[in-house]
Amino acid sequence: MNTDETVRTFTDFYRDRGHRLITGSSLLPPPPDPVLFTTSGMHPLTPHLLGRPHPQGRRLTNVQRCLRTTDLDEVGDSTHLTVFEMLGSWSLGDYGHSQSLRWGYELLRDGFGIPPEWLHVTVFGGDGQVGPDTESLRTWQELGLPVELTEDENWWSNGPVGPCGPDSEIFFWTGDPGTPPQGTPTTDPRWVEIWNHVNMRYHRHEDGSLELLPRPGIDTGMGLERLVTVLQGQRSVYDTDVFEPWLRLLLPLWDLDERPMRLVCDHLRSSIVVIGDGVRPSNTGRGYVLRRLIRRLLTTLRRDDLSRTLTDLPLELIGHTLDHFRQSYDPGTVRELLLDEELRFTKLLERGQRVLSRPEFKGPLSEDDYHYLHDTHGLPRDLVAGLLTTG
Ligand code: SER
């Protein structure tokens, strides 16, 4: 099943069960949300999980694009992406946790064809403040799946205050399919978490106290690219159809090793999506995140061959990305923006090299030097540091 079919299977399943597909899944959270980018599927729904009615009703589903800069150093491994998508389902004070788990199991088994023996679940076992989640435990036992009880791993919150509650996580066995699964999610890393069902029952206040929400909700989230990786039996997200055109077209063009190639693909794809949502490179806020992504990928791209340039980036990859994220943007315009930014970066690097070759900048730089280079020559600290290490 390819990525588009996976998405359709998910949203159709929930639509058939009375859920409305949320329209709009931009990376930019609507004001007054102070966060630069949407970081999870439930992020835009936080006020509604706390009780505000949602205009589309009490049963919702969505494919939400998300951006995380917290994992940037991980990008290039098998699983981390800067921009990714979350499949989500929500009950805003409608059905309860048991129903959510039953549907989750049905979709994985019948919709995605996952053999039940490759699944394991975890459930909140209770702590000093809240008792064990016996409803979920009973539900999974009735469904016949192996259950592990944990404490911290099965309590979901998005920070010290706000909506929170016990969750139940579903894991998929990624070991050798020829031999039976072993161990449990906390004892064997070959159990990979694919789906989290949160029983959003509480609001945690500043003093740490928990208040029961008047209308408890259910929030589920499943990372699309991770799901597709396991469904397609691959070891890495870069081996799935999500990145198939990227590697097919870029490998013959830029002869990079595996990890730098993955970073270049991830950052380029992320930059296209961010531009598609209306962001432009700049020195502050969202635009600065975009600028840094482009500069990081250019630095990696040119590390051992200065002739590599985005001028060679196939337009087809931009179009493929915009189509996938349902962004109605002209690929040629995105390309122009990327090329403008590349030119600006190239000029900045040339200026940086010229300035840093002056005798007063031989030796270690002081804080005053960094300020001078930034304020007078527009050279950011990380760029100066990069130029000093590469010579
Ligand atoms: N809020 C849960 C998570 O982020 C499920 O959406 O995992």
Report on this structure.
This protein is α+β, with helices and mostly antiparallel strands and 391 residues long. It has two domains: 3-239, Bira Bifunctional Protein, Domain 2 (BirA Bifunctional Protein, domain 2, 2-Layer Sandwich); 244-390. Helices cover 39% and strands 19% of the residues. The protein is built from twelve helices and nine strands. It has helices spanning 3-16, 46-49, 97-111, 134-143, 224-231, 244-250, 258-276, 285-302, 315-324, 331-356, 367-377, 381-390, and strands spanning 20-21, 59-67, 83-91, 119-124, 147-150, 155-157, 162-173, 191-204, 210-223. Strands 1, 2, 3, 4, 5, 6, 7, 8 and 9 form a nine-stranded mixed sheet that branches. A hairpin with a 5-residue loop joins strand 8 (191-204) and strand 9 (210-223). Helix 3 runs parallel beside helix 4 (134-143), helix 7 (258-276) packs across helix 9 and helix 10 crosses helix 12 (381-390). It binds serine. Serine binds next to strand 8 and strand 9.
